[in-house]
Amino acid sequence: xxxxxxxxxxxxxxxxxxxxxxxxxxxxVMFNMWYLAYADEAVxxxxxxxxxPYKDWQGMGFDVHVVHxxxxxxxxVKNRDLTEVLVSPSRIGGKSFTLxxxxxxxxxxxxxxxxxxxxxxxxxHGTIALPARLVEALGEVRG
Length: 143
What we know:
The protein is of the alpha+beta class. It has one domain (about 10-140): Roll (Thiol Ester Dehydrase, Chain A). The chain is about 15% helix and about 35% strand. The longest helix has 17 residues, at about 35-50. The chain is elongated and about 45 Å long. The model is unreliable at about 1-5 (pLDDT under 50).
């Protein structure tokens, strides 16, 4: 497992879901691509909870691009499993940041991962420094 698991002590779930039938593969577990879809949902909820919903970013002149993703699986999420996704900032840089996440079922972590985002201008000027409002919404780095 990744070293980031302990960064989730005391972190409340950002998003909960129950996998749907069509998200389950022939082995009876959630197909791997759905983990990133649910991570996106959790990241969206993370920023909503912190007062900076994604729908507001364009008007503030910035957006983010995914530049790196990691996933490590410990157990499969199965059909109808109530699953939580926890999100925690693990790095805040000058032009990018990293969010770690964990999928949890019945208190057990089934998958951990991280997504690195680069901040870009919506005006087509490439990468930009992290806006102060985004840094504020990210909060304290854990872990």
